[in-house]
Amino acid sequence: MIALKNIEYAYFLGIGGIGMSALARYFHANGVEVAGYDRVESPLTKQLVDEGMSVHYLDDPKLIPQKFLNAERCLFVYTPAIPKNHAQKNELINLGFQIYKRAEVLGLLSRNMFTLAVAGTHGKTTVSTMLAWLMQFAETKANAFLGGISKNFNSNYVCAENSNQLVVEADEFDRSFLHLTPNCSIITSTDADHLDIYGTHEELLNTFQKFADSNKDCLVIKQGLQIKTKAKQFHYALDDTAADFYGKNFILDGMFYQFDLQTPDGEICGLKSGVPGLLNCENAIAASAMALMNGLDAENLKKALQSFAGIKRRFEIIVNRPDFVYIDDYAHHPEEIRKTYESLRNTFPGKKLTAIFQPHLYSRTNDFATAFACELSKFDALILLPIYPARELPISGVTSNLIFDQMDNPQKYFVEKSELLTKLKSMDLDVLVSLGAGDIDRFVPQIKAVYSGE
Prior knowledge:
It is built from 14 helices and 21 strands. By secondary structure, the chain is an alpha/beta fold.
Protein backbone atom coordinates (compact mmCIF):
# COMPACT_ATOMS: atom_id res chain seq x y z
CA MET A 1 0.00 0.00 0.00
CA ILE A 2 1.11 3.55 -0.72
CA ALA A 3 2.90 5.13 2.26
CA LEU A 4 0.62 7.53 4.11
CA LYS A 5 3.35 10.19 4.19
CA ASN A 6 3.45 10.23 0.38
CA ILE A 7 -0.27 10.83 -0.18
CA GLU A 8 -1.11 14.20 -1.74
CA TYR A 9 -4.43 13.20 -3.33
CA ALA A 10 -7.22 10.82 -2.34
CA TYR A 11 -9.99 9.71 -4.67
CA PHE A 12 -13.10 7.93 -3.34
CA LEU A 13 -15.54 5.80 -5.33
CA GLY A 14 -18.70 6.08 -3.23
CA ILE A 15 -17.56 9.15 -1.30
CA GLY A 16 -21.09 9.82 -0.02
CA GLY A 17 -21.24 6.60 2.00
CA ILE A 18 -21.16 7.07 5.75
CA GLY A 19 -17.90 5.16 6.23
CA MET A 20 -16.25 6.54 3.10
CA SER A 21 -17.07 10.14 3.96
CA ALA A 22 -15.44 9.76 7.39
CA LEU A 23 -12.21 8.64 5.69
CA ALA A 24 -12.50 11.49 3.19
CA ARG A 25 -12.83 13.95 6.06
CA TYR A 26 -9.76 12.46 7.74
CA PHE A 27 -7.55 12.91 4.69
CA HIS A 28 -8.95 16.38 3.96
CA ALA A 29 -8.25 17.44 7.56
CA ASN A 30 -4.68 16.24 7.12
CA GLY A 31 -3.97 18.41 4.09
CA VAL A 32 -4.72 15.88 1.34
CA GLU A 33 -6.68 17.07 -1.71
CA VAL A 34 -9.85 14.95 -1.86
CA ALA A 35 -12.25 14.23 -4.72
CA GLY A 36 -14.71 11.49 -5.47
CA TYR A 37 -17.75 10.02 -7.16
CA ASP A 38 -21.15 9.09 -5.79
CA ARG A 39 -24.31 7.91 -7.48
CA VAL A 40 -26.57 10.72 -6.25
CA GLU A 41 -26.21 14.03 -4.49
CA SER A 42 -27.18 13.93 -0.82
CA PRO A 43 -27.02 16.23 2.20
CA LEU A 44 -23.77 14.48 3.15
CA THR A 45 -22.10 14.99 -0.24
CA LYS A 46 -23.20 18.65 -0.16
CA GLN A 47 -21.45 18.98 3.21
CA LEU A 48 -18.26 17.44 1.81
CA VAL A 49 -18.33 19.99 -1.03
CA ASP A 50 -18.90 22.83 1.47
CA GLU A 51 -15.88 21.55 3.40
CA GLY A 52 -13.69 21.88 0.31
CA MET A 53 -13.87 18.48 -1.39
CA SER A 54 -14.82 17.88 -5.03
CA VAL A 55 -17.71 15.49 -5.74
CA HIS A 56 -19.37 14.50 -9.03
CA TYR A 57 -22.27 12.16 -9.83
CA LEU A 58 -21.55 10.74 -13.31
CA ASP A 59 -19.70 7.44 -13.72
CA ASP A 60 -17.33 8.83 -16.34
CA PRO A 61 -13.58 8.09 -16.14
CA LYS A 62 -12.87 11.47 -17.74
CA LEU A 63 -14.16 13.16 -14.57
CA ILE A 64 -11.27 11.79 -12.50
CA PRO A 65 -8.92 14.81 -12.21
CA GLN A 66 -5.80 14.28 -14.31
CA LYS A 67 -3.44 15.22 -11.49
CA PHE A 68 -4.93 12.41 -9.36
CA LEU A 69 -3.68 9.80 -11.86
CA ASN A 70 -0.37 9.43 -10.04
CA ALA A 71 0.27 6.04 -8.44
CA GLU A 72 2.94 7.44 -6.11
CA ARG A 73 0.88 10.35 -4.81
CA CYS A 74 -2.80 9.34 -4.97
CA LEU A 75 -4.74 6.90 -2.82
CA PHE A 76 -7.73 5.33 -4.58
CA VAL A 77 -10.45 3.96 -2.28
CA TYR A 78 -13.73 2.20 -3.08
CA THR A 79 -16.69 0.86 -1.19
CA PRO A 80 -17.94 -2.72 -1.79
CA ALA A 81 -21.27 -1.16 -2.80
CA ILE A 82 -19.65 -0.05 -6.07
CA PRO A 83 -20.89 -2.49 -8.79
CA LYS A 84 -18.52 -4.69 -10.79
CA ASN A 85 -19.34 -2.88 -14.04
CA HIS A 86 -18.44 0.55 -12.64
CA ALA A 87 -16.64 2.45 -15.43
CA GLN A 88 -14.33 4.54 -13.24
CA LYS A 89 -13.28 1.60 -11.11
CA ASN A 90 -12.54 -0.58 -14.14
CA GLU A 91 -10.66 2.22 -15.89
CA LEU A 92 -8.38 2.68 -12.88
CA ILE A 93 -7.73 -1.06 -12.77
CA ASN A 94 -7.00 -1.15 -16.50
CA LEU A 95 -4.54 1.73 -16.09
CA GLY A 96 -2.69 -0.32 -13.47
CA PHE A 97 -3.63 1.66 -10.36
CA GLN A 98 -4.01 -0.15 -7.05
CA ILE A 99 -7.39 0.60 -5.48
CA TYR A 100 -8.18 -0.26 -1.89
CA LYS A 101 -11.29 -1.17 0.02
CA ARG A 102 -12.38 1.29 2.67
CA ALA A 103 -11.77 -1.37 5.30
CA GLU A 104 -8.15 -1.83 4.22
CA VAL A 105 -7.45 1.88 4.60
CA LEU A 106 -9.20 2.02 7.95
CA GLY A 107 -7.14 -0.95 9.12
CA LEU A 108 -3.94 0.81 8.07
CA LEU A 109 -4.87 4.02 9.87
CA SER A 110 -5.75 2.17 13.08
CA ARG A 111 -2.63 0.02 13.11
CA ASN A 112 -0.45 2.53 14.95
CA MET A 113 -3.14 3.72 17.38
CA PHE A 114 -4.66 2.28 20.55
CA THR A 115 -7.90 1.14 18.97
CA LEU A 116 -11.27 0.68 20.65
CA ALA A 117 -13.53 -1.09 18.16
CA VAL A 118 -17.29 -1.62 18.34
CA ALA A 119 -18.78 -4.53 16.39
CA GLY A 120 -22.22 -6.11 16.13
CA THR A 121 -24.97 -6.79 13.65
CA HIS A 122 -26.87 -3.96 15.31
CA GLY A 123 -26.16 -1.30 17.91
CA LYS A 124 -22.58 -0.65 16.83
CA THR A 125 -23.17 2.84 15.43
CA THR A 126 -24.87 4.12 18.57
CA VAL A 127 -22.39 2.46 20.94
CA SER A 128 -19.31 3.62 19.02
CA THR A 129 -20.65 7.19 18.81
CA MET A 130 -21.48 7.17 22.52
CA LEU A 131 -18.01 5.83 23.29
CA ALA A 132 -16.34 8.50 21.15
CA TRP A 133 -18.25 11.19 23.08
CA LEU A 134 -17.54 9.66 26.50
CA MET A 135 -13.81 9.50 25.71
CA GLN A 136 -13.73 13.26 25.14
CA PHE A 137 -14.26 13.55 28.92
CA ALA A 138 -11.27 11.30 29.66
CA GLU A 139 -7.73 12.64 29.90
CA THR A 140 -6.67 10.63 26.83
CA LYS A 141 -9.58 11.72 24.62
CA ALA A 142 -9.97 9.81 21.32
CA ASN A 143 -10.17 10.17 17.58
CA ALA A 144 -13.05 8.38 15.86
CA PHE A 145 -14.37 6.99 12.58
CA LEU A 146 -18.12 6.54 13.00
CA GLY A 147 -20.97 4.98 11.04
CA GLY A 148 -23.42 7.78 11.75
CA ILE A 149 -23.53 11.56 12.09
CA SER A 150 -23.02 12.46 15.73
CA LYS A 151 -25.09 15.42 16.88
CA ASN A 152 -22.41 16.37 19.40
CA PHE A 153 -19.65 16.48 16.78
CA ASN A 154 -21.93 17.21 13.78
CA SER A 155 -19.74 14.74 11.91
CA ASN A 156 -18.83 11.09 11.49
CA TYR A 157 -15.13 11.88 11.95
CA VAL A 158 -13.58 13.08 15.21
CA CYS A 159 -10.08 14.54 15.44
CA ALA A 160 -8.60 14.67 18.93
CA GLU A 161 -5.22 16.38 18.76
CA ASN A 162 -2.35 14.71 20.60
CA SER A 163 -4.43 11.59 21.28
CA ASN A 164 -3.25 8.14 20.24
CA GLN A 165 -6.61 6.52 21.00
CA LEU A 166 -9.05 5.69 18.23
CA VAL A 167 -12.71 4.66 18.41
CA VAL A 168 -13.84 2.87 15.30
CA GLU A 169 -17.04 1.21 14.17
CA ALA A 170 -16.10 -2.33 13.12
CA ASP A 171 -18.35 -3.37 10.24
CA GLU A 172 -19.04 -7.06 9.66
CA PHE A 173 -20.32 -6.47 6.10
CA ASP A 174 -17.96 -8.09 3.59
CA ARG A 175 -15.85 -9.22 6.59
CA SER A 176 -14.47 -5.68 6.73
CA PHE A 177 -13.68 -5.73 10.46
CA LEU A 178 -11.08 -8.46 9.96
CA HIS A 179 -8.74 -5.75 8.62
CA LEU A 180 -8.63 -4.28 12.12
CA THR A 181 -6.31 -5.35 14.95
CA PRO A 182 -8.01 -3.68 17.93
CA ASN A 183 -6.67 -3.41 21.44
CA CYS A 184 -10.16 -3.61 22.97
CA SER A 185 -13.56 -4.27 21.45
CA ILE A 186 -17.25 -4.27 22.23
CA ILE A 187 -19.47 -6.88 20.56
CA THR A 188 -23.14 -5.93 20.80
CA SER A 189 -24.85 -8.68 18.81
CA THR A 190 -24.27 -11.53 16.38
CA ASP A 191 -27.75 -12.08 14.93
CA ALA A 192 -28.05 -13.55 11.44
CA ASP A 193 -27.58 -10.84 8.80
CA HIS A 194 -25.74 -10.27 5.52
CA LEU A 195 -26.46 -13.85 4.51
CA ASP A 196 -25.84 -12.79 0.91
CA ILE A 197 -22.21 -12.46 2.02
CA TYR A 198 -21.89 -15.22 4.62
CA GLY A 199 -24.29 -17.84 3.33
CA THR A 200 -25.15 -19.13 6.81
CA HIS A 201 -25.50 -17.76 10.31
CA GLU A 202 -22.80 -20.20 11.41
CA GLU A 203 -20.27 -18.66 9.04
CA LEU A 204 -21.13 -15.17 10.36
CA LEU A 205 -20.59 -16.43 13.93
CA ASN A 206 -17.26 -17.92 12.91
CA THR A 207 -16.20 -14.58 11.49
CA PHE A 208 -17.18 -12.74 14.67
CA GLN A 209 -15.04 -15.27 16.53
CA LYS A 210 -12.09 -14.41 14.30
CA PHE A 211 -12.65 -10.73 15.00
CA ALA A 212 -12.78 -11.42 18.75
CA ASP A 213 -9.54 -13.39 18.53
CA SER A 214 -7.80 -10.42 16.90
CA ASN A 215 -8.15 -8.32 20.08
CA LYS A 216 -4.95 -7.70 21.99
CA ASP A 217 -6.21 -6.71 25.45
CA CYS A 218 -9.90 -7.07 26.32
CA LEU A 219 -13.44 -7.59 25.12
CA VAL A 220 -16.76 -6.24 26.37
CA ILE A 221 -19.44 -8.66 25.16
CA LYS A 222 -23.23 -8.60 25.39
CA GLN A 223 -24.33 -11.11 28.01
CA GLY A 224 -25.45 -14.33 26.37
CA LEU A 225 -23.26 -14.19 23.26
CA GLN A 226 -21.24 -17.35 22.76
CA ILE A 227 -17.79 -15.87 22.19
CA LYS A 228 -14.66 -17.06 24.00
CA THR A 229 -11.15 -15.73 23.45
CA LYS A 230 -7.82 -15.53 25.23
CA ALA A 231 -8.25 -11.79 25.77
CA LYS A 232 -9.72 -10.65 29.08
CA GLN A 233 -13.52 -10.61 28.86
CA PHE A 234 -16.29 -8.64 30.51
CA HIS A 235 -20.02 -8.95 29.89
CA TYR A 236 -22.66 -6.24 29.87
CA ALA A 237 -26.46 -6.28 29.94
CA LEU A 238 -29.40 -3.97 30.42
CA ASP A 239 -30.39 -5.48 33.77
CA ASP A 240 -29.05 -9.06 33.93
CA THR A 241 -27.25 -9.38 37.26
CA ALA A 242 -25.07 -12.18 35.90
CA ALA A 243 -23.17 -9.60 33.81
CA ASP A 244 -20.12 -7.62 34.95
CA PHE A 245 -21.77 -4.32 33.96
CA TYR A 246 -25.54 -3.88 34.22
CA GLY A 247 -28.15 -1.27 35.06
CA LYS A 248 -30.70 -1.15 37.85
CA ASN A 249 -33.25 1.19 39.44
CA PHE A 250 -34.46 2.51 36.07
CA ILE A 251 -36.71 5.57 36.36
CA LEU A 252 -38.50 6.99 33.30
CA ASP A 253 -38.70 10.80 33.20
CA GLY A 254 -40.64 11.81 30.09
CA MET A 255 -38.77 9.97 27.32
CA PHE A 256 -35.46 9.71 29.20
CA TYR A 257 -34.19 7.29 31.83
CA GLN A 258 -32.19 7.63 35.00
CA PHE A 259 -30.46 4.51 36.29
CA ASP A 260 -27.63 3.17 38.42
CA LEU A 261 -24.72 1.24 36.91
CA GLN A 262 -23.25 -1.79 38.61
CA THR A 263 -19.60 -2.40 37.71
CA PRO A 264 -16.95 -4.86 38.96
CA ASP A 265 -15.56 -1.99 41.06
CA GLY A 266 -18.84 -0.89 42.62
CA GLU A 267 -21.98 1.08 41.85
CA ILE A 268 -22.24 4.38 40.00
CA CYS A 269 -25.52 6.04 40.94
CA GLY A 270 -27.62 8.62 39.18
CA LEU A 271 -26.68 8.20 35.53
CA LYS A 272 -29.01 10.01 33.16
CA SER A 273 -29.35 9.13 29.50
CA GLY A 274 -29.24 12.01 27.02
CA VAL A 275 -31.18 9.99 24.45
CA PRO A 276 -34.53 8.22 24.82
CA GLY A 277 -35.44 4.56 25.10
CA LEU A 278 -34.35 1.50 27.06
CA LEU A 279 -32.35 0.30 24.06
CA ASN A 280 -30.16 3.37 24.51
CA CYS A 281 -29.70 2.57 28.19
CA GLU A 282 -28.28 -0.80 27.14
CA ASN A 283 -26.08 0.92 24.56
CA ALA A 284 -24.91 3.37 27.22
CA ILE A 285 -23.93 0.52 29.55
CA ALA A 286 -21.74 -1.02 26.84
CA ALA A 287 -20.05 2.29 26.01
CA SER A 288 -19.63 3.17 29.69
CA ALA A 289 -17.97 -0.16 30.45
CA MET A 290 -15.34 0.40 27.76
CA ALA A 291 -14.79 4.06 28.69
CA LEU A 292 -14.37 3.25 32.39
CA MET A 293 -11.69 0.70 31.51
CA ASN A 294 -9.85 3.25 29.38
CA GLY A 295 -9.44 6.28 31.56
CA LEU A 296 -12.88 7.78 32.23
CA ASP A 297 -13.85 8.32 35.88
CA ALA A 298 -17.34 8.05 37.36
CA GLU A 299 -18.03 11.77 37.74
CA ASN A 300 -17.06 12.57 34.18
CA LEU A 301 -19.11 9.59 32.98
CA LYS A 302 -22.21 11.19 34.50
CA LYS A 303 -21.55 14.50 32.72
CA ALA A 304 -20.72 12.87 29.42
CA LEU A 305 -23.67 10.50 29.30
CA GLN A 306 -26.26 13.15 30.11
CA SER A 307 -24.81 15.51 27.48
CA PHE A 308 -24.77 12.88 24.71
CA ALA A 309 -27.11 14.32 22.07
CA GLY A 310 -27.52 11.23 19.92
CA ILE A 311 -27.04 10.34 16.28
CA LYS A 312 -29.01 11.26 13.24
CA ARG A 313 -31.41 8.43 12.31
CA ARG A 314 -30.87 6.46 15.52
CA PHE A 315 -34.08 6.77 17.57
CA GLU A 316 -33.94 10.45 16.66
CA ILE A 317 -36.75 12.66 17.96
CA ILE A 318 -37.96 14.77 15.02
CA VAL A 319 -41.23 16.19 16.37
CA ASN A 320 -42.16 16.27 20.06
CA ARG A 321 -45.58 17.77 20.70
CA PRO A 322 -47.84 16.99 23.65
CA ASP A 323 -50.29 15.27 21.29
CA PHE A 324 -47.87 13.85 18.71
CA VAL A 325 -44.33 12.46 18.60
CA TYR A 326 -42.35 11.54 15.49
CA ILE A 327 -39.14 9.48 15.72
CA ASP A 328 -36.85 8.42 12.88
CA ASP A 329 -34.76 5.26 13.23
CA TYR A 330 -32.32 3.28 11.08
CA ALA A 331 -33.70 -0.12 12.17
CA HIS A 332 -33.62 -2.47 9.16
CA HIS A 333 -33.29 -5.92 10.78
CA PRO A 334 -36.07 -7.76 12.65
CA GLU A 335 -34.14 -7.69 15.94
CA GLU A 336 -33.56 -3.95 15.63
CA ILE A 337 -37.26 -3.40 14.96
CA ARG A 338 -38.12 -5.53 18.01
CA LYS A 339 -35.93 -3.39 20.25
CA THR A 340 -37.24 -0.15 18.80
CA TYR A 341 -40.84 -1.29 19.32
CA GLU A 342 -40.17 -2.31 22.93
CA SER A 343 -38.52 1.03 23.68
CA LEU A 344 -41.45 2.89 22.16
CA ARG A 345 -44.03 0.81 24.02
CA ASN A 346 -42.23 1.30 27.36
CA THR A 347 -41.89 5.04 26.74
CA PHE A 348 -45.43 5.61 25.46
CA PRO A 349 -47.74 3.20 27.28
CA GLY A 350 -51.30 3.42 26.04
CA LYS A 351 -50.40 5.45 22.94
CA LYS A 352 -51.11 4.32 19.39
CA LEU A 353 -47.82 3.35 17.72
CA THR A 354 -47.68 3.72 13.93
CA ALA A 355 -44.64 2.65 11.90
CA ILE A 356 -43.49 3.30 8.36
CA PHE A 357 -41.08 0.61 7.17
CA GLN A 358 -38.98 0.52 4.02
CA PRO A 359 -37.33 -2.90 3.56
CA HIS A 360 -33.63 -2.71 2.68
CA LEU A 361 -32.22 -5.17 0.11
CA TYR A 362 -34.00 -7.96 -1.74
CA SER A 363 -31.76 -10.57 -0.11
CA ARG A 364 -32.49 -9.41 3.44
CA THR A 365 -36.22 -9.26 2.70
CA ASN A 366 -36.10 -12.79 1.31
CA ASP A 367 -34.10 -14.11 4.27
CA PHE A 368 -36.17 -12.51 7.04
CA ALA A 369 -39.65 -11.84 5.63
CA THR A 370 -41.41 -13.93 8.29
CA ALA A 371 -39.44 -12.33 11.13
CA PHE A 372 -40.12 -8.85 9.73
CA ALA A 373 -43.84 -9.62 9.56
CA CYS A 374 -43.85 -10.85 13.15
CA GLU A 375 -42.15 -7.75 14.56
CA LEU A 376 -44.03 -5.22 12.43
CA SER A 377 -47.38 -6.80 13.38
CA LYS A 378 -46.81 -5.58 16.95
CA PHE A 379 -47.39 -1.96 15.94
CA ASP A 380 -50.93 -0.62 16.11
CA ALA A 381 -50.68 0.46 12.48
CA LEU A 382 -48.07 -0.15 9.80
CA ILE A 383 -47.32 1.49 6.45
CA LEU A 384 -45.09 -0.65 4.24
CA LEU A 385 -43.07 0.79 1.33
CA PRO A 386 -41.43 -0.97 -1.63
CA ILE A 387 -37.98 -2.53 -1.14
CA TYR A 388 -34.97 -0.23 -1.38
CA PRO A 389 -32.54 -2.21 -3.57
CA ALA A 390 -29.28 -0.44 -2.63
CA ARG A 391 -26.47 -2.42 -4.31
CA GLU A 392 -28.67 -5.34 -5.46
CA LEU A 393 -30.49 -6.35 -8.60
CA PRO A 394 -34.08 -7.63 -8.16
CA ILE A 395 -34.68 -11.23 -7.10
CA SER A 396 -37.57 -12.90 -8.85
CA GLY A 397 -40.64 -13.06 -6.64
CA VAL A 398 -39.13 -10.95 -3.85
CA THR A 399 -41.19 -7.84 -3.09
CA SER A 400 -42.55 -6.16 0.02
CA ASN A 401 -45.56 -8.44 -0.34
CA LEU A 402 -43.48 -11.25 1.21
CA ILE A 403 -43.71 -9.29 4.44
CA PHE A 404 -47.12 -7.72 3.94
CA ASP A 405 -48.98 -10.96 3.27
CA GLN A 406 -47.65 -12.56 6.49
CA MET A 407 -48.51 -9.65 8.76
CA ASP A 408 -51.27 -10.17 11.31
CA ASN A 409 -52.40 -6.57 11.62
CA PRO A 410 -55.81 -5.19 10.60
CA GLN A 411 -54.29 -1.73 10.10
CA LYS A 412 -51.60 -2.54 7.56
CA TYR A 413 -51.18 -0.54 4.38
CA PHE A 414 -48.89 -0.91 1.38
CA VAL A 415 -48.19 2.36 -0.42
CA GLU A 416 -45.78 3.68 -3.01
CA LYS A 417 -43.37 6.36 -1.83
CA SER A 418 -45.27 8.97 -3.83
CA GLU A 419 -48.41 8.16 -1.79
CA LEU A 420 -46.82 8.22 1.67
CA LEU A 421 -47.59 11.77 2.78
CA THR A 422 -51.18 11.55 1.54
CA LYS A 423 -51.68 8.32 3.48
CA LEU A 424 -50.21 9.77 6.68
CA LYS A 425 -52.51 12.79 6.52
CA SER A 426 -55.52 10.46 6.42
CA MET A 427 -54.51 8.59 9.60
CA ASP A 428 -55.05 9.20 13.30
CA LEU A 429 -51.54 9.38 14.79
CA ASP A 430 -50.17 9.50 18.35
CA VAL A 431 -46.59 8.24 17.95
CA LEU A 432 -45.07 7.78 14.50
CA VAL A 433 -41.74 6.08 13.73
CA SER A 434 -40.05 5.73 10.34
CA LEU A 435 -37.82 2.66 10.00
CA GLY A 436 -35.30 1.60 7.38
CA ALA A 437 -31.80 1.96 5.96
CA GLY A 438 -32.71 3.05 2.44
CA ASP A 439 -33.81 6.50 1.29
CA ILE A 440 -36.73 6.77 3.70
CA ASP A 441 -34.77 9.54 5.42
CA ARG A 442 -35.58 11.77 2.43
CA PHE A 443 -39.15 11.94 3.77
CA VAL A 444 -38.13 13.06 7.26
CA PRO A 445 -38.04 16.82 6.49
CA GLN A 446 -41.38 16.55 4.67
CA ILE A 447 -43.06 14.70 7.54
CA LYS A 448 -41.54 17.15 10.00
CA ALA A 449 -42.92 20.08 8.02
CA VAL A 450 -46.44 18.61 8.05
CA TYR A 451 -46.55 17.90 11.78
CA SER A 452 -44.43 20.65 13.28
CA GLY A 453 -46.09 23.48 11.40
CA GLU A 454 -42.90 24.48 9.56
